[in-house]
Backbone:
DNA sequence: ATCGTATCTTTACAGTGTAAAGTTTGCATT
DNA sequence: AATGCAAACTTTACACTGTAAAGATACGAT
């Protein structure tokens, strides 16, 4: 446990990001503020500026943290569904929705950041882990002579759109607390037709 | 032209919504504020409260206005692409992306509102125009004995996800100023396989 | 002409982001 | 151990924003 002296928190950068994640779960995107993060981390409101510059910088750091957590989450989802190629792909899609259910506002922050900014933090956009999970899961469905990202973009568009519409209650009545398996499977049936038969 | 007396704008509700739409195009979602809308409409910062209650209420009204404009836009897109069922469906999808390119922040406001709120303003969710356009365009692709909304949700998920990812620069490099026809057609090729063959 | 309600304006306050000046601490150097 | 510098904060200040309350003006009904 880091010892905090009067002017030296010790691990404030991390603490602020963690505070941000907690606030997002507690109060949503609109409840996230620089001062609340600072208060939660036990420092004055101006302390974050030294590490992040401003609120946009802090959001960038939070978004990147979500990116990292999400990547690991998707890797686990892929590893869990090993039965077949299509089961793995659908398992990843299900994981995408589940992550959104568990942390809707985290996704909002992550997708509110320009990809160039995540790339800057990541150092290599093309090797981003969650995208790599998608790429590997889609690989079996890419017809010969076809650019892999065509199928990747089809899948990503479908699942991202479904997640956004479902989480915002546009595909269903009532509060979203879990995946509606029936409707989910029905929409994801389109994944059975990724490659022309 | 409405004559504005000292304490009576005449059509402030409309003016504030219009001001909001303009601000969204000029400064994006983060540049939208109650005070800026009021200033643009030529009234004091507290005037909107009488009509909308608060900022959330004003956003709701702006979102509903976008909903109305978008519905007409989609109706026009559907009418324009009359060649075949699939051409019409793809034309609507293309219109969805184009609308987002033209007014990204308008979509952000519209999708930031709970559908129950739009329903309250609309009076009948199931009859919402843009959804009706989607429904009619999807109808030819619904297999016998299948619930229509399954295909509708597949199409909506795909095009909504594509629009969001494309507009935020996750599917392409550089600034988004127009639809990339090649990539768009490649992703929308999935629409050719809506019904099992 | 009068009255009540609608439609504003003005004043005030809390929360927020950012900036600048100041203080404290850790670490490197001597 | 002493010193100095930069890092890592705190404090103070200000502008912007949302909201609320009190007050002023205007419209429409009677």
Residues:
């Amino acid at each position: 446990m880091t010892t905090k002296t009067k002017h030296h928190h010790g691990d404030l950068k991390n603490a602020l990001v963690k505070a941000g994640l907690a606030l997002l779960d507690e109060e949503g995107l609109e409840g996230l503020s620089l001062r609340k993060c600072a208060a939660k981390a036990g420092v004055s409101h101006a302390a974050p500026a030294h590490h992040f510059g401003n609120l946009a910088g802090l959001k960038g750091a939070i978004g990147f943290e979500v990116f990292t957590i999400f990547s690991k989450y998707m890797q686990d989802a892929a590893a869990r569904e090993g039965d077949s190629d299509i089961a793995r792909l659908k398992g990843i899609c299900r994981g995408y929705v589940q992550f959104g259910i568990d942390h809707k506002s985290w996704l909002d922050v992550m997708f509110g950041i320009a990809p160039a900014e995540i790339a800057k933090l990541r150092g290599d956009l093309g090797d981003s882990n969650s995208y790599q999970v998608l790429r590997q899961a889609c690989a079996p469905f890419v017809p010969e002579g076809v650019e892999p990202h065509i199928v990747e973009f089809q899948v990503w568009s479908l699942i991202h759109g479904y997640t956004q519409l479902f989480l915002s209650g546009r595909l269903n009545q009532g509060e979203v607390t879990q995946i509606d398996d029936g409707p989910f499977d029905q929409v994801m049936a389109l994944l059975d037709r990724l490659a022309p038969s």
